[in-house]
Automatic annotation (TrEMBL):
Name listed for the protein in its UniProt record: 5'-nucleotidase SurE
One Gene Ontology CC term in the entry: cytoplasm
GO molecular function, one term: 5'-nucleotidase activity
Matches recorded under HAMAP family: SurE
Superkingdom assignment: Bacteria
Gene giving rise to this polypeptide: surE
Amino acid sequence: MRILITNDDGINAPGLVTLAEIAAEIAGPQGEVWTVAPAFEQSGVGHCISYIHPTLIAELGPRRFATEGSPADCVLAAISDVMRDSPPDLVLSGVNRGNNSGENVMYSGTIGAAMEAALQGLPAIALSQYMGTQTAGLADPFEAARAHAPGLIRDLLQHGDWTSDADFRLFYNLNFPPCSAADVKGVRVGPQGRRRGTKFQVKADVAPNGRRFLWIMGGSQTAPATPGSDVEANMANYISLTPMRPDLTCHASLDGLKVLEQG
């Protein structure tokens, strides 16, 4: 198996080291793991692509490349350039330092890479490690992902919906809870949730030279969330598994809007 790995924390991020180990275990001794990741951190860029300017790409070593672009750019670079003669069988994005459950999904470059892979017709999985007080005390804060991801990915490859002829191919979002590997209770399948009473906002600050700056700040990551959702599962020490697709249509509202059709 040929696996492409990428992330949004950057080519030197510790979570990417974890993902490389996970991917090597999945690929097996006869497989290949290719890395195409952002040269610098790209957290929060979502599904951004560098549409209006060129993207520099550099080979750092065997099957290891860095681009001065977004995670989605990295997937495009891999498919159209680096691995154009033999595209990957699977794309893994992460392991993100911090969760990408709940509303964080909409901002995540980790998710953006997996989404771009799905749009390109490739199987893709996003992996993120929820951080908290328990993980802060661990020698390896990614140990829950490191220990549980390989088996879960194998199960997902066997039992997931990987239909390739659908209009919008599915991809999968895995979030590992903020606890040690031993304290993970299991896996819960659930929808993307929403943390109540919290949202992204800006905080104004003035630099010593008098210039005014705005800092983007996220809300509480432990706020109560939608029952049965990915966030609720993570906060209860479960791995969350959420099937996703690059289609923002609210299908439940289509029929009700038919009265507005004209012509």
